[in-house]
Amino acid sequence: MHYVYIIKSQVGDHYYTGCTENIETRVRNHNEGSVPHTAKYKPWIIKTYLAFADKQQAINFEKYLKTASGRAFAKKRL
Question: What are phi and psi of 67, to 5 degrees?
Answer without folding.
Answer: -90, 170
